[in-house]
Design brief:
Elements (H helix, E strand, L loop, with lengths): L2 H21 L5 E7 L5 H16 L5 E5 L6 H12 L5 E5 L5 E3 L1 H7 L3 E4 L4 E3 L14 H21 L4 H9 L3 E3 H6 L5 E2 L3 H8 L3 E4 L2 E4 L6 E5 L3 H9 L2 H20 L5 H17 L6 H19 L5 H16 L12 H27 L13 E4 L8 E4 L2 E6 L9 E8 L3 E6 L15
Parallel strand pairs: 1-2, 1-11, 2-3, 3-5, 4-6, 5-8, 14-16
Antiparallel strand pairs: 6-7, 9-10, 12-13, 12-15, 13-14, 15-16
């Protein structure tokens, strides 16, 4: 054997324990994922990544602690595919007490190797709902969607040996049942108060892999809480309709302020960032584009108020358009996908007040009389240094100026500037000052 062969054997000998640890030895730690939100692309990515990591580490199982009102069909199917293709057992536990596995959550629970629920929880209501006004299907297409979802739910239940008839009813009739009813109907495997009790009860349960019946050994297992990292937490929070709506309104206000007060820069930068984040959030929400157009129309009306004297009519129209656009923005009958009416009322009120305040400031600035430059000298009071008619000299605003007037003005008289002529010459008129009136500006050497 040459020296290169010996080097290879030495390297393999040194790396052998690492390969054994990562690929062949089984640990005693079970990852616990707490999902207490809607099923969206961020949630799906988090769950599928953790299932893949648990499989690569050859963990004894992975536990998903679920509390969800439902979510997107595409995100749900990504999670279910990860469950069905996992080499290790996947446990879905609907908890804590008062939690639910509704809509997409019901099918995710059905697809698990071991399905459990905590007392006081419920499961079901998995009827598909079409979202987005621009893509509302007709009755024929809706029937196809319902049939597809019912067949999918039935196939999941049959694969895991659960009640297929109930699974189909949950889709077609939106039935929802309690934990006790789910156990009696063979929808779930057991009821447990907490995760520790759940593992104890699962000891000895059987599951199938590649046609083989395997026994789950829960003795000595410990749970490790796995949370989303900061980036996933931020993106998951952005998927909340209320957060997405507030970001959009913040972006609109920032951009409006930058347009009305050019050069401030910071509001425009913040507004652009908020708009981009809102667009990301709306990508996973059923947005009604008529609502978006109404909100944009409101901003246009507010900007026109600055340019056109409408005595507040354009501003009133903008407030109305913003209110109706906000109410129509999210088009879904699912409560978890709707924007809170209280949030809409507060946001429209504050946004409209801020925009009207900024508009008023712009209008007052535009109507303010000029106080500097040549135009600002009109109306100033000065003194005739020499007789003035076709020409002469006056002292005004701390300076000497050539001036003319329609009527002769004697030297030493007070004059008022009425016009700024070409060639740095003023047109003035005589001023008669009584005892009650003081000159606007009179400065002499």
């Amino acid at each position: 054997m040459d020296r290169y062969g010996r080097y290879i054997i030495i390297v393999l000998f040194l790396l052998g324990p690492a390969f054994m640890h990562n690929g062949y030895t089984s640990g005693t730690t079970v990852r616990q994922l707490d999902v207490a939100s809607s099923i969206n692309p961020v949630t799906a990515t988090f769950i599928t990544e953790q299932i893949a990591l648990a499989n690569s580490n050859n963990d004894p199982a992975i536990l998903i602690r679920l509390d969800t009102p439902g979510g997107l069909d595409t995100a749900m199917r990504d999670i279910i595919q990860a469950e069905l293709n996992s080499n290790i057992p996947v446990i879905v536990f609907v908890a804590p007490q008062g939690a639910r596995a509704a809509s997409a959550g019901a099918l995710i629970t059905l697809a698990a190797d071991f399905a459990a629920m905590s007392p006081g929880t419920n499961i079901g209501a998995a009827h598909p709902v079409a979202i987005g006004q621009g893509n509302q299907p007709d009755s024929t297409m809706m029937g196809k969607i319902e049939n597809d979802a019912a067949a999918y739910a039935r196939s999941l239940a049959q694969k895991r040996g659960r009640n297929a008839d109930w699974a189909e009813e949950a889709v077609r009739e939106s039935v929802s049942i309690s934990a006790e009813e789910a156990l009696n109907l063979s929808v779930i495997d057991l009821i447990a108060d907490n995760t520790k009790m759940l593992l104890e009860q699962l000891d000895g349960f059987k599951y199938i892999r590649d046609g083989k019946v395997l026994v789950f050994n829960a003795s000595g297992l410990t749970l490790e809480q796995i949370d989303m990292h900061w980036r996933q937490k931020i993106l998951n929070a952005l998927s909340n309709p209320n957060i997405a709506y507030l970001l959009m309104m913040l972006g609109i206000i920032g951009i409006f302020f930058e347009i009305s007060q050019p050069g401030v820069i910071l509001p425009g930068a913040i507004g652009a960032i908020a708009i981009l984040l809102a667009l990301f959030a709306f990508s996973s929400l059923p947005v009604n584009y008529v609502g978006v157009l109404l909100i944009l129309m409101a901003i246009v009306l507010f900007i026109l108020e600055v340019k056109v004297v409408s005595y507040g009519m354009l501003s009133i129209g903008g407030v109305v358009a913003m209110a109706f656009g906000s109410l129509m923005l999210i088009d879904s009958s699912e409560p978890y996908l709707q924007i809170s009416r209280a949030v809409i009322a507060a946001t429209v009120t504050v946004s409209a007040g801020f925009i009207l305040l900024a508009t008023g400031m712009v209008i007052r600035t535009q109507r303010r009389p000029v106080t500097s430059g040549q135009e600002g000298m009109v109306g100033e009071i000065g003194k005739a240094i020499e007789p003035i008619h076709s020409s002469g000299k006056v002292f005004v605003h701390g300076e000497y100026w050539y001036a003319c007037s329609d009527q002769p003005i004697s030297a030493g008289s007070e004059v008022r500037i009425i016009q700024f002529l070409d060639g740095l010459k003023l047109k003035v008129e005589a001023v008669e000052i009584n005892n009650m009136e003081q000159p606007r500006s009179l400065k002499e050497d």
